[in-house]
Design a protein that fits this description.
heterodimer; A: alpha/beta; 2 domains; 6-stranded mixed sheet; 4-stranded antiparallel sheet; 8 helices; 37% helix; B: mainly alpha; 12 helices
Chain lengths: 237, 269
Amino acid sequence: MILLDCVTKNFGTFTAVDNVSYSIQKGESFALLGPNGAGKTTIVRMLLNFITPSSGKITIKGLPAADPESRRHIGYVAEQHRIPPYLSGLDYLSRHASLIGLSGQAAKGQIENVLEMVSMKGRERKKSATYSRGMKQRIGLGAALLGQPELLILDEPISGLDPIGIRDIRKIIETLRGQGVSIILNSHLLSEVEKTCDTAAILYRGKILIKDTISAIVKDHETLEDVFFRYIEKENE
Amino acid sequence: MNNVLKISVYTMWDQMRQKSVYVLLGLSVLFIWIIRGCYDGGYSINGHMVDNTTVAWHISKIVFHLITGGMFLMVSMLSMKIFSRDQEDGSAVLFLSRSVFRWHYVLGRIAGTWLLCLIFMFILHATIVLTVWAKTGALISGYLSASLVCSVSLLFVIACVCLLSLFLPDFISALFTFGIFFVGFISDGGYQILNSDLLRSAGPAMTNPAPALWRVLYPKVFMVQAYADAIIGNSDFHNMGPFHPLLNLSFFILLILALLLAGFHRKEI
């Protein structure tokens, strides 16, 4: 589904992502873990071609990430999802639906569905300027779910959400996993990752320290958090 | 191409959501209507009274050029923020996280802004036609074709400001574009004055040397304006060099758009 081959990204003299290689299979639910500045968001931005790698190759479904066709079946929720303040949630979703190629009743039906899923029904006609951060995240997730994506990229999707919102998103992720949707989840909340993902990679200073299934990474009597800190501390020594 | 159309429509729609667009349009139409009083006679030159039609003719031409100048200002204000605003409010991510080529996005934004301003300017220029018609009974349709000619200059402004805004702060990019205008105004304006019928009739002492190559090749925004003026008056147009100003400006628009697309292709979102 996704292949990163020796990908490096430099910003001037700073190396944000350093020779990263990994692949994600179809239906895999993959978590990218790491402290702030580890390079998680940079990898996501490269997957969406918002920035280009300094070296290395990224392919999505066999297509280079630079090819817009590779994003046809991707849903993306940004950390602190931004919605133009003059648009209502409904306008925002309609634009996404139109760009995907949905129109008429098909678009209307899917928008209704996702509004229901993200619990924004009844509030979709208000301007996004009046939305809280959590509501924007929900609308962002709704937009990502339009068009039945094969891959969902979630960059800190639960930041700004209340416990109910976090539970809702966890449920949505679990449903999508059941439908065979591949998921890339960037998150600081290790307990959430443990509950929702099959595989994980720990990223630190742009390098992948480990990538494996969560069951293989987490040994007996340990949590993912223990493993995370063990790897980070080892790297700091 | 479908995406270019969609993004153009969104761009126009987003601008039209702002009440200030309607307020500005309303005030401008009102202004043009109010100055119809100037079209009345009562002017005398060298002791001769000038008839209403001649007065209306000259004043309406001045208003025509003032509107175009105002539109240059408006369009540069709108275009200088296209990319930075989209980056800030999430519009760029909205479009580019989908299967939209970057050139679709750039051309869609530019086309939408241009079409909106073209319509805005056309309405104002059409108001002049109606006002002159109502006041003098003369229907000068040349204003409408001249308006469409001036819209090419609007596209040049949008492309230029957008290109510069990739590398310069927004306001500086608009200012820089006006700097380009100003140089053209001096160069082409001087040429037009030297070739005016008034100076030509002054006698053979007035010689007009061939302009320097850079002046011939320079973006001909002012010359397009002079060409529009010639269309209105159905008069001779004194071109500088072998290339028609519309051809010159179209070349620069294509060149700037190519540079803009190449520049935006590498831009980080």
